Amino acid sequence: MSEHAPAPADLINQLLGDMHLHGVEYRRIQTGPDFGLGFEFKPGHAYFHYIAVGRAVLRCDDGSEHVLTAGDAVFMPRGEGHSLVSSQKQRVSPIDSFSAAPLSDSVAGVDTCPSTHAVPSAVLFYGRMAFDLGGMQGLSKLMPSVMLAGYNDAQFAGLLPLIDSMKREVCSGRIGFAGILARLADVIAAMIVRGWVERGCDDASGLVAALRDPRLARSLLALHDDPGRDWTVDTLAAESHVSRSVFAERFQSTIGVPPLRYVTQIRMHLATRWLSVNQLPIEEVALRLGYTSQAAFSRAFKRVNGQSPGASKRNRLACRHIATSQLRPRDRRCGPATNRQDARRSVKHPRSRKPEQLIHDVPHLGTQVACARPQRVNLDVVLRTVLQDQLQ
What is the pTM of this model? Predict the structure, then answer.
């Protein structure tokens, strides 16, 4: 490798540093012995599940099944449809059909445990996140549909302190536990992705192969460093120190798209994030990405995304507003929303109980299971304290 070629690990580190997991919704769920929770396909999103107490069967829409036990964490980077069930024959209800009591700004509690059960049979934590790999967004298509971090899995040993912290937060009901759980879920999911990359991406091809090719790696690094530059096939080939024809053929065969189409995809992906997440003005995004006018940028954006930058920004903000509004107080009886009478008779929702009724002793854990509404705290400070305690 030339002394001027970036090391593949360095390039992967830089690109993974641009990875974002933006939480859309989180649920702390406690159930009785029989449960079936359905999660629909969400393109552009990822699912995260953690089993704190009990067991569950993860049943994917492709027919595969995975048995999950206490301490297991699962990341599903492609947002594919699936269900969590107590048994093979259990009927499944969509997760959105269960009423949820707000526990914090982004976390809600779902309690389907019948009042006849003093202790829940299973306690789960679920998260749905907008999954953005930045310049490596194409990598998400190469990832396995289910990335399981088993509690006793040696290759995820570094996750154990975080998973132990998540178990305590799920079960303790301490001040600020809901917000801390959301942060821990994001960190654990990111570490699962990093572990997959460190293992060589399970020999996936495409973009990963390009990152391992010193010649292509040079041009990719230059592109991601400066996406607004006036890139041509000639300038990209010059970064790789190969001829235009050799570069174009190698790029197409390795990544699967022509070089300039890849440049446009990267720019439009960044534009979507800057508009909806960072909420930058359209003219500033156009300038950052090297477009000579807002009109030229808008035409390129619509050609790739099927709608104008303004419409895309409004739609994404509206979706975020809808997701947030679902956490507002409404009918707080638990169980499927279509079965309110049964819910009224058999289930007491956490929000209808007194705080002291929300804590259940769980002898085999040596802890408690809680679903109390947290107080406002500085989550960054609390999370840092939790991690420091674990790593000492």
Answer: 0.64
